[in-house]
Amino acid sequence: MAFKERVKVMEEADIRRAVQRISHEIVERNKGAGNVVIVGIRTRGVPLSLRVAEAVSRIEGLEVPVGRLDVTLYRDDLHTMSQPVVKETHLPGDIEGKHVVIVDDVLYTGRSVRAALDAIIDFGRPATIQLAVLVDRGHRELPIRADYVGKNIPTSVGEKVRVALKEVDGEDGVFIGSDDG
Amino acid sequence: MAESRHLLDVDDLTREDIERVLESARSFAEVLRRPIKKVPSLRGKTVVNLFYEPSTRTRMSFEVAAKRLSADVMNFTASTSSVEKGESLKDTALTLEAMGVDAVVIRHPVAGAPWLLRQWLEAAILNAGDGMHAHPTQALLDLFTLCDRLGDLEGRTIAYVGDILHSRVARSGIKACRAMGMEVLVVAPPTLLPPAELEGVETGHDLDAVIPRCDALYMLRIQKERQEEGRFPSLEEYTHLYQLNPRRLGKARPGVVVMHPGPMNRGVEIASEVADAPMAAITAQVASGVAVRMAVLFTLLGGAEGGERVA
After folding, report:
1. B304 touching A, CB under 8 A?
2. Does A157 contact B at CB distance below 8 Å?
């Protein structure tokens, strides 16, 4: 199904500011970034996590480890997916006792986040797992909430939220639209 | 695989399907390196290993693959089952159907048995070797190993050497390599070649002549009964003409990959020094087996036709 764009709700500058603010909040809440690991959920959580990690590193003047996570194997809706393909997962070293910040583009039903929690716990026992999202569009099906939100965008279930990022899509922007057809 | 819930032979797969399985297999190889080598993807699914022929590596590899995906596994061995009392394949199939299994991995001495099974069962059927006919997961794990060693396979050359006539490994492997754009040669005594020419495959009898052209050499097992059948005069003569030994390997391209489906007859089709040399990918093939079979089980059982992913 093609995505029919209607409204651009975040410009490039809005996304930049949201990433900056989230990064400051991560540093503040964790009293620095010495024990922080940032993990992006594929696909668009990965470039976002790299941006957050870069900003946190700049604020704190130290290198923050970044990982990427494919949660396909942990989803509870595999039976609804056609031709699932599992992509690479990579966590930077031991996460035992670390503050792991999961980064994703859109928080919707919460099922991807639940899958990510299971996946991370299989790698070790972090001190905390926190969640950062660029957009929270509501309609949770599980008791999950984000610790850091770029923008709350109340939507109807029929609407679609599309996050475009330069690294994947060639431009930055958040759009609300509907499925074409 | 795009249209089918089964994996009966490599013919079922387009190049795109193969690449998708190999990509998933790379991720499963990563899962196998984790401290917890298990993911919940196939929780609640039941996989049956239906083995009418002895096998160690393939059966264990499928069993480990299914268990790593959290599926329940039942093992059926013909020699310890009601087959001994005369139960037919169809009745066994109907029993499995009644138990509601999700996938059946079948190894059978008769070519075509997995196709028969497909008629009686709703479950996904995976061919783990039928007679002299097909062995698609072996072909996929061989491709995975080749990609790992050689990178892009397009335009690369592989030679299958030895008993092509009786080899399901070669039959499926040749199709898979061709699907990936490889040039395929077969080298064997005339008596160990199939009666009909293999499509798009160059056939020869002189191993020394083809070795310098190859990026990969696939040595097939010589079964001793073939010699008793009179397919070739003696093991010594076969060894003299077709064994991959250090002298022959010396003429190969740098970086050549040596493969064998196992179990090896050291000193017959492959010299021990070659089997243990760094260019031999034989243990890597076994290691690839679990990841590739996880990818196949996951692809067949994990998704649904026409489904759509939601965030």
Report:
1. yes
2. no
Q: Does residue A14 come out as left (phi exceeding 0), alpha (psi in the -120 to 50 range) or beta? A: alpha
* Residues 241-300 (B) with a CB less than 8 A from some CB of A: 295, 298-299
In Å, how far are A141, B287, B290 from A69, measured between CA atoms? Answer: 22, 23, 21
Interface residue B196 vs chain A (CB under 8 A): no
Q: Could you tell me the pTM of the whole model?
A: 0.88
With vertex at residue B81, the alpha carbon angle to CA B76 and CA B83, rounded to the nearest 5 degrees, is 110
Per-residue pLDDT tens digits for A56-102: 999 999 999 999 999 999 988 777 776 777 888 899 989 999 999 99
Question: B135 with B175: CB under 8 angstroms?
Answer: no
Q: Which residues of B touch A88 (CB under 8 A)?
A: 26-27, 30
Is B43 in the A-facing interface, judged by CB distances under 8 Å?
A: no
Instruction: Say if residues B244 and B279 touch (Cβ distance below 8 Å).
Output: no
Distance from A77 to chain B by nearest Cα, in Å? 8
Output the DSSP codes for chain B.
Answer: --S-S-B-SGGG--HHHHHHHHHHHHHHHHHTTSSS----TTTT-EEEEEESS--SHHHHHHHHHHHHTT-EEEEEEGGGSGGGGT--HHHHHHHHHHHT-SEEEEEESSTTHHHHHHHH-SSEEEEEEETTTB-HHHHHHHHHHHHHHHS--TT-EEEEES--TT-HHHHHHHHHHHHTT-EEEEE--GGGS-SSPPTT-EEES-HHHHGGG-SEEEEPPPPHHHHHTTSSS-HHHHHHHH-B-HHHHTTSPTT-EEE--S---BTTTB-HHHHTSTTB-HHHHHHHHHHHHHHHHHHHHH--TT-----
pLDDT in tens, B146-186: 999 999 999 999 999 999 999 999 999 999 999 999 999 99
Contact B36 A109 (CB under 8 A): no
Of B27, B304, B307, the CB nearest to A86: B27
- Judge if ipTM > 0.85: no
Task: Give how far Cα A7 sits from Cα of A17, A152, B103, Å.
Answer: 20, 15, 46
CA gap B216, B81 in Å, rounded:
41
